[in-house]
Write a structure and sequence with these properties.
The chain is 40% helix and 22% strand. By secondary structure, it is of the alpha/beta class. The strands form three sheets. It has a ten-stranded mixed beta sheet with strand order 2-1-3-12-11-4-5-10-8-9, with helices on both faces. Strands 6-7 form a two-stranded antiparallel sheet. Strands 13-14 form a two-stranded parallel sheet. Bound molecules: 3-isopropylmalic acid and magnesium ion.
Length: 354
């Protein structure tokens, strides 16, 4: 048996993970994988029950699992809590605790949704890129000061630190992934200004020597942000640090038309975690209108990367393609002339297409 820990989290996290589990059950019945599910809380939901956004027990359960399926966390209700109790802390606790050093965020343009993209169809059509974001280092985890007084003036600071092994690890993964794709890596940094970026670039160049068949280029992050919307087709794999990856992956999500469809995999040494890149959308929670496709596609990545069930992963992706091709649309991607459906119904349709 393969143990999956499901962490629905807050807001629409509940309904979208329920959808993804339904799809996993269907695919399991078809491919005979032998999946077992166990549920844990995180975020505001965990805070309400246990007084902390992530319990040690939940983290331990994840460590022992074959894969973690995560919904989303956060909500207005918990915004005024001190930083260490906020729902987002659960995400950092899981990333650090599970050593999830690489976040893979693929952007794919669905031909059926090309008109939902705010960008020109001829510009985005055919783009297919993968952002490989470093996830447990850099300014997100460096020393910081929330407030101090210097010469009578209040200030605050954060620190960007990267070590050679940290950069090597993420770069290798990016190159290995590029070998399985179109063989191109773009490293994004700010080496014209930041010391940590200069080390980043040096290490990337060194690692690249072991991958003569993979093409490497470098872009400064400001230019990369512009190139993503000017000419997204030039990219195959983008490798970058934690904060640049955070920013660029939201931007890249626009290329695909809807953030509701974007999955992600956070790869760790012990286990890996899969989640949609959108948030918990408390305003639409429990209304049966959220798009579960990003989470279902994240479950497909779990099948692919953690369970090595490529055929099952493909089957899930194909079922989503078919659902879209048949004209079914949740509210976030609905346009005139298509068939509008809610979370439960679209899940049923996807299962039917498996
Ligand atoms: C993401 C999110 C998180 C991040 C937030 C919720 C802390 O934006 O996963 O991209 O900044 O990493
Ligand atoms: Mg983000």
């Amino acid at each position: 048996m393969k143990k999956i820990i499901v962490i629905p989290g807050d807001g629409i996290g509940q309904e979208i993970t329920a959808s993804a589990v339904e799809v996993l059950k269907k695919v399991d019945a078809k491919f005979g994988i032998g999946l077992e599910y166990d549920y844990r809380d995180a975020g505001g939901t965990s805070y309400e029950k246990f007084g902390t956004p992530l319990t040690d027990e939940a983290l331990d359960a994840c460590k022992k699992a074959d894969g973690v399926l995560f919904g989303a966390v956060g909500g207005k209700k918990w915004d005024s809590l001190p930083v260490y109790l906020r729902p987002e802390r659960a995400i950092f606790g899981l990333r650090k605790g599970l050593g999830l050093f690489a976040n893979l965020r693929p952007t794919k343009v669905y031909p059926e949704l090309i008109n939902s993209s705010p960008l020109k169809p001829e510009l985005v059509g055919g783009s297919d890129l993968l952002i490989v974001r470093e996830l447990v280092g850099g300014i997100y985890f460096g020393p910081r000061c929330e407030s101090e007084t210097k010469d009578g003036v209040e200030q605050a600071w954060d620190t960007e630190i990267y070590s050679v092994p940290e950069i090597e690890r993420i770069t290798k993964l990016a190159f290995e992934t590029a070998k399985l794709r179109r063989g191109k890596v773009t490293s994004v940094d700010k080496a014209n200004v930041l010391a940590a970026s200069r080390l980043w670039r040096k290490v990337v160049v060194d690692v690249a020597k072991n991958y003569p068949d993979v093409e490497l280029n470098h872009l400064y992050v400001d230019n990369a942000a512009m190139q993503l919307v000017l000419n997204p087709k030039q990219f195959d794999v983008i490798v970058t640090n934690n904060i640049f990856g955070d920013i660029l992956s939201d931007e890249a999500a626009v290329i695909g038309g809807s953030i509701g469809l974007m999955p992600s995999a956070s790869i760790g040494e012990l286990t890996s975690l899969y989640e949609p890149i959108h948030g918990s959308a408390p305003d639409i929670a429990g209304k049966d209108i959220a798009n579960p496709m990003g989470t279902i596609l994240s479950a497909a990545m779990l099948l692919r990367y953690s369970l090595k069930e490529e055929a099952a992963a493909k089957a899930v992706e194909t079922a989503i393609d078919k659902t879209l091709a048949d004209g079914w649309r949740t509210a976030d991607i609905f346009t005139d002339g298509f068939k509008r459906v809610g979370t439960a119904q679209v899940t049923e349709i996807i299962c039917g297409n498996l």
